[in-house]
Give the backbone structure.
Amino acid sequence: MSAGASQDLATQPITSRRDPRYEVVMYRHVGVEGAHTLDYYRSHGGYEAARKALAEMSPGQVIDEVKASKLRGRGGAGFPTGVKWSFMPPVDGRQRLLVVNADESEPGSFKDRYIMEDDPHQLIEGMIIGCYAIQATKGMIYIRGEYVKGYERLVGAIREARDAGILGRDALGTGIEVDITVHRGAGAYICGEETALMNSLEGLRGNPRLKPPFPAQAGVYGLPTTINNVTTMTSVVHIITRGAAWFASMGTDDSKGTKLYQISGPVKRPGVYELPMGATFRELIYDLAGGPKEAAKGFFPGGSSTPPLPWTDDNLDLPMTYDAMAKAGSMLGTGGVIVIPKEKDIVSAMYNVVRFYAHESCGKCTPCREGIATWLPKMYQKLLAGLGTREDLTLMEEMVRNTRGTAFCPLADACAMPVQASFTWFRDEYEYLVDNGQPMYTKNDWWDA
Amino acid sequence: MVELDTIPPFFADKRALVGEILGRYPEYGRRSAVMPLLWEVQRAERHVSEARVAEIAEIVGIHPTEVKGVMSFYSEYHGEPVGRYHLQVCSTLSCSLAGSDQLYDHLVEKLGIVNGETDREGRFSIQKVECLGSCGTGPVLQVNDVYYERVGRARCDQLLEALMRDEMPEAWRERGGDNEGEAKAEFLLSSAGGDGAGEGEA
């Protein structure tokens, strides 16, 4: 941030919603009555980006534009989208697939649901552009089973788009073929892991697959496949409309563009907020969400699998970017912030998180099945029953440390890392519980009238 | 146990539907139809019996055990009938911080059934589920396919009373965040900064 006096303010990157140049784009229509219809979408500039991409750009140019925007995948891992697209093998006559991962199941994440329910055409438009860029004629959306409203809205929107000639053999009158199928899951967090998702799409149990081969080489049905998150696709729409330079004018060196963040837990106005990357947690939590309703002691920065951070001024002033989160010993994840109130005992909060991963472990590999799904929740139950000892705490710490990096897929780490962090920052609460047989904080009724 | 051949086949008179579902996938991906076919049965019969599993296996061309294997992997398919109103209580962290544990206890008291049970009349069943993606508007209760969000004490009783009259209210769709109706987020920034971080210090 060496803002020399000579440098014009207009060339400074946008990193706050306070910046007058900032504009909400992806979330603009969510909550507007009738926004899910094709008429509404078209009357607000809908499908102009897809028309521009298909009619005026080559697939390579679309990929280059997305690369130049420095868009990183919004599903959690943050892999550069344009680079991922360029991993697709040369066209060889085989069917190529674009799969959208709409299995949004990470606790604290709920941005994709509102997009699919209230603005499904935005996702479809992003998919048309994405299919064209990787030269696929078929897009598939894997939506979690619980999102029935989103499923119905997507199916309805696809039907509208087919009838209007936006999808089909001659998409938007350009002679290019694109069609989309929606596939419903049925309740399994692991299917958000891309190789498990592919198995589920093929009608198998949702166990992860070994990588390599990566999806681009051998994905769904063994065909070249690219898998992207819902809001990665919707970001692409605006990158094509406004250009890579516009997208890259927001954020920091490593994290560009505008992003949907989510905030839950006891704050005054929880929900989804669109912010430029590089905005701080403080801006999200205080300026937009109105601040905590009661004293807070920590927060998960990006969903329950990102290690929680203590509630300090330094942490609240961190920019919500991939690099800043890595430096702080956590991750940006899906951008789903969960505020932990002071009165919620950390052991019971973490037991809730552990129980989630235990329930969602697929059982394929031993470290996760025995460690995360069996031992760890039992250890927490022992502590919460008032039967734990200091030795148990050491055992738990060793267990999660030794689990890290040993499991077949990232699910075990997604549980081990936040547990480790809870020991780092809140060990006093664990010790209080084993020493006294009862938790430091005993509030257990959180239900409002 | 009812004899399998006494149950009329489910898909026999639904050729168009089966064709439509199979048509979503390429011929070499026929097996992908397993999950949508399971959904069709479950929506109509509130569970998927062994006989239906066998039917699906035959349509797709795999062994019934393989269909059963898929079915048992996912928490939304049921081998036994659930109630006419299947209450799915999100129990993950954000909802728990909004009172979902107390909400669950309340349902248990009111309905006399616990997680995994269906009442005698087949009206209600309860399932504790993991994160439903409604973290900003918890606690959330999913009844069959419908989300009821921000289910506080009063609203919970209101919902139960309606269901007991066999009335299913419209979804309580809440959004929060950038779309809090009149209270659009834009104005918030102008008045921001008043709340320091101090009040939240541990």
Summary: The first strand of chain A starts at residue 97 and ends at 102. The beta strands of chain A are 97-102, 138-143, 168-171, 176-184, 225-229, 258-264, 271-276, 296-300, 309-310, 336-341. The radius of gyration of chain A is 22 Å.
